[in-house]
Amino acid sequence: MRRMSPSTIATAGVVAATLIGTVIAAIYQHKTPNVLDVVLPLVACTAIFWRNRHPVAVLIVVGLTTFIYYPYAYIDGPFLLLTVLALYTAADQGHLLAAIVTGGAGLLAMGFGETEVRHVDNTTFLIIAEGIVTTITIGGVTRNRRAYRNEVHERAREAERTHAEEVRRRETEERLRIARELHDVVGHNISLINVQAGAALHGLKKRPEDAEAALRTIKETSKETLRQLRTTLGVLRQVDEDAPVVPAASLTRLDELTAGLSVTLDVPDSLEDLPAEVDLAASRIVKEALTNVSRHSGAHHASLAITRTPRNITIRVEDDGPGATFTEGTGYGLQGMRERAIALGGTLEAGPRPEGGFRVVADLPLQKETA
After folding, report:
1. Residue 224: pLDDT above 70?
2. Tell me, what CATH number does 352's domain have?
3. What is the pTM of this model?
């Protein structure tokens, strides 16, 4: 069974109060109702149920029946309840001018009509006038408040949509960047293998046949792998026919990673023999952490500490900013850094420091180095 809306319930309540009040007024006033006492309330009560769909039309109908009811009907019933509801609905639906004109016309007719007998005294007239003005005002206020709430909700939905699109865009850019870097690293290393294998094959013509076959396999395999990488990742990056010869970002070039920011360094003397994938991930984590320090934290200084053991390498980036660079566990850059660490079997923790500022700590395993 369909439930009635609050608006319908309110309308039904006003209609019931009007009809019941009219009957009670007839009983207590000891008056015999005429045709208008029956017809006008029925017409107005029927019309009022359409107030939300046709507020101006309903206001006109109710207003006209009110103008006729009070001068010519015998029973002085609570007909004004329907008028008040019609005025409120018109103002609430944005028809403020219609409500003001109708209310003003009713007051003029009530106070300055050309009938021989004035039906209300000055006090009653002022009370009714105050009620009409208050009703129209409340309707206009509720209209404005609803419009404001709708605007706020629309802005929130738009911000949410924009945020979701930005998240997807940043995620796509991050994965494309990882793919390009992977292409650079693997392509560079395979190019070296290809060149070295070619040189070895050229110098080992007089060596045993098995060595020559192994070198030939290395050469062919590296060449085929390089071709497949170009084909697969060609949509992500335009690759020349010649294999890439410049390696990707590296911890050996920290001056490039810390450019434009005051950074205190505490790093090992040599970081040149790191596995390529670890070196790439570590350098990107450092770069992203320092970039967010300069862009978002408001910090004037940062520190970078790198600790290396035979099993892992730990990176710690801290700043002295007034607030956290990210909300803990969120953020576009933080998400990319965490994905890099997890992809290598490592971990990344980030959050505000107790003494102020922000801290990023990444721990990356070096299994390939010690295997």
Report:
1. no
2. 3.30.565.10
3. 0.46
